[in-house]
Design a protein that fits this description.
Layout: H1 2-6, H2 29-44, H3 51-59, E1 72-75, E2 83-87, H4 105-109, H5 114-120, H6 122-138, H7 141-155, H8 164-173
Antiparallel strand pairs: 1-2
Helix pairs in contact: 2-3, 6-7
Length: 179
């Protein structure tokens, strides 16, 4: 894609990946790979790997995250016509639980029931978004955790987690802020 966009001739090169993010877990591993390879190629060509350009490239391949932008950045993950810096990252400790399985980004975002799901949960998703924005702006991890818990609950319908409620109860019992 980069070769076609820049009108480049055939070039050689080698990319080696050091897997740090698990694949298919919603941690933006594909977007990180796409962005890193494109940025490295652009730097090698003497070009500036601007986040907006990297986002355009990634979104030309599949629905993507905003990992190419600094800090916490909102992005319309399918078409990418909108992105907005929300604030700096916040230091926090977290526990990651792997429920098993994997999600294919393209297939997941092509689901015919996805738009209806988001419409049904629009109010709660909006509330989670406002809480997350406030949490980022205020450096308030409790608001961020509340936002993520609301979001996780909304997504149970389309990405079921049979142990979600017992896990949330355990997290709260141990003093965790949310899931």
């Amino acid at each position: 894609l980069l070769k076609a966009k820049l009108g480049l001739p055939e070039l050689g090169g080698k990319v080696e990946f050091s897997l740090q993010l698990p694949e298919g877990k919603g941690m933006a591993s594909s977007t990180a790979d796409i962005s890193a390879v494109a940025a490295a190629a652009l730097v090698a060509l003497g070009e500036d790997p601007l986040p907006e350009y990297l986002a355009e490239l990634a979104l030309g391949i599949e629905p993507s995250d905003s990992v190419m932008f600094p800090g916490i950045t909102e992005i319309e993950h399918v078409q990418g016509h909108k992105h907005r810096f929300l604030g700096s990252s916040l230091p926090a400790f977290f526990l990651a639980l792997d429920w098993g399985g994997a999600i294919d980004t393209k297939l997941f975002n092509a689901r015919p029931d996805l738009a209806g799901h988001y419409r049904r949960h629009e109010g709660e998703i909006g509330r989670a978004y406002r809480l997350a924005c406030a949490g980022i702006a205020q450096g308030d991890l409790e608001k961020l955790a509340a936002a993520s818990t609301i979001s996780a609950r909304c997504n149970l319908e389309i990405n079921q987690k049979s142990l979600f409620h017992p896990f949330l109860a355990w997290v709260r019992q141990k003093g965790g802020l949310g899931v």
